[in-house]
Design brief:
Strand order of the largest sheet: 3-2-1-4-5-6-7
Order of helices and strands: EHEHEHEHEHEHHHE
Distance between the termini: 41 Å
Shape: globular
Oligomer: single chain
Low-confidence stretches: none
Mean pLDDT: 94
Length: about 230
Amino acid sequence: MSSVVVVGGTSGIGREFARVRAERGDDVVLTGRDPDRTEAVAKEVGARGLALDLSRPREIAAALADVGRVDHLVLAGVSRDENRATDYDITAALRLVTLKLVGYTEVVHVLRPRMTDDSAIVIFGGQAKERPYPGATTVATVNAGVRGLVNTLAVELAPVRVNAVHPGVVGDSPYWQSKPEEVLAALRARTPTGRLATVADVVDSVDFLLRNRSVNAVELSVDGGWLLG
């Protein structure tokens, strides 16, 4: 049995990963911003819930005080942000940058003493870093920053392994399911596999990165070759 912490585990891919690992018999802790929602989701998936807001990094240490040994850490917390240089929302930009780069790093800082030499970390990025779109100014910048974060952590925390997963369009995720079918059809047409990535695909990729002891400092794209389209 492994001890697993999923930061950002109350919805989407983080939630499904927490459910899969708890169902497997692992000791899972998941976090979310809202205490009531976090507790409810944790109960549903068979995990323990902790309220934690990545955008408030000075509160992270106290929020994680009761977490014991950490074999696997998944940093999946995200915030939907639409920002442009021509119409720049500084507050939203600061929140996302703090959440992903400072918040993620503070979680690692707090939990590092509870890891072993065989522990592993997976950090979520995204393909906006390679194919930005109007409104992705902050998202693309932060996801590109994940590359540097993975590399420096893999060196500093060695032998703890640190990898990143960069999902493309995840067709059955709550965000993309709400899009019109014609939008999804156009995305499928540009994907060499003819299908969009699924939540299950991404969960499987995270599990692989955590499990394979020879994979380190890798950025894994899970997009069916979408960037080639």
